[in-house]
Amino acid sequence: MNAHSNPAAAAAAGTNPHFILVPLMAQGHMIPMADLACLLVDNGGLVSFITTPVNAARISSTLAGVRSSAIPIRLVELRFPAAEAGLPAGCENLDLLADYKLHKPFVEVFPLLADQLELYLRHQIPAANCIVSDNKHAWASSIARKLRIPFIIFHTPSCFYLHSTFSIKRHNIFDRLKDDFEPFFLPDIPQRIQMVRPQVERWLDSPTWEKLRGECYAAEEAADGVIINTFEELEPWCVERYGIATGKKVWPIGPLSLHNRETETRESATSIEAAIDAERIRKWLDDREEGSVVFVSFGSLARNPISQLIEIGSGLEAAGVGFVWVVKEVEVRSSTEAERWMDQFERRSESEKKGIVIRGWAPQTAVLSHPAVGGFLTHCGWNSALEAICAGVPMATWPHFADQFLNERLVVDVLGIGVAVGATVPLKPADEERKDAVVMRGAVANAVVRLMDEGEEGEGRRRKAREFGEKARKAMDKGGSSNEYLKGLIAHVIGVTL
């Protein structure tokens, strides 16, 4: 075996491949890319992690351990052109945008980072061997082509989502529909799964995004391959069919969160208040019976108005099970009414020892791994879904937007480890026009009761969830499928750039 077919041997021979990672500035994209950086370094690679000042401060704790090692991760800060996009200073991440209407100018300003990145790459020692870019950074493809560097797309959604949306586009499904809510079956999959257009539309499918959509499609066409944060045993036929359909090399090298599972700061919480909340949650869970608690969290971008918060809380009370509910501070601070209702709900829940409410942040991976947690009420973002799968915890799925509806179908219909709450209408993050609840307390209570069911149906979901959790851990271990794909990725990059 020569040095170029083995990452460890390559490192010893002084041929460590230098990866340039360019994540989308959104927590759901930054965190898995940071985990990828750590994984590459631990397997003999060098990494330059391209970001901006605000995002560097947020992600530095995740990278700290590896950055202090002998082969550091270079955290490269580019000036974010907020003024050019008409954005307030410091708005360098999607979850910092106060209005959904700012998403388009935010994304459209990304190409203005190109000159800074090219200047960095031209002066690097050792030279870059590969650019790994989020698919929204189509401009990075042009730099790779100009500098003759291999270019690889990093996808954060499930392979099921990628395969489904690619097939919908390939078969021109949208062109055949009479209206947005005419049902259709997903093409090119073994299951009969019915969707409507708004549930599968991507950002790039919006009418005003034609230019960026074309650029992203062209960048993917030009890419050497794609990295996906999944593992082969979770969606085997999807990985195979997606690779055949796209004609690309596909490297499923997840779940990436497992590689960094010891780092509690992954979730970007370093404050004293967050540490106090984490200890409070742990103590509360320690007093609960195994599998008796449902964890409730909807990610960093989704926003619930007071009417929806009331329905969630009332549904949890009606279900009669213990809960840990994470409520974003921006939701509670949205009105005096929300503050007052949440205060009353918190006092009532804690006095009756039914549950606790956490405002802001909770250590999600640690909570899901606690023996007392038996279910997860989630927005079905892929990072959250993967963390539940790794912990062997079944889910009640409540998708809001983007890839979440297709992730729900994977969790519920394909894997059989979830219960759908019943959300059917996509909701944009930070949508100020939304005032009313879209899922009522009865549906919330019913989903939670089914999720925590101790009968044959519930035990079947729990058994499958545990099995997938074990497969996830084996995939990331030495000799596992994801570990082998990672070796193949590094060997490919070294071979191309010799």
Automatic annotation (TrEMBL):
Protein name: Glycosyltransferase
Region called Disordered, residue ranges: 455-474
Gene behind this protein: UGT73C6
GO MF term list: UDP-glucosyltransferase activity
Documented EC number(s): 2.4.1.-
Keywords: Glycosyltransferase, Transferase
SUPFAM superfamilies in the record: UDP-Glycosyltransferase/glycogen phosphorylase
Organism: Platanthera zijinensis
Family membership noted in the UniProt record: Belongs to the UDP-glycosyltransferase family.
PROSITE patterns associated with the record: UDPGT
Origin: domain of life: Eukaryota
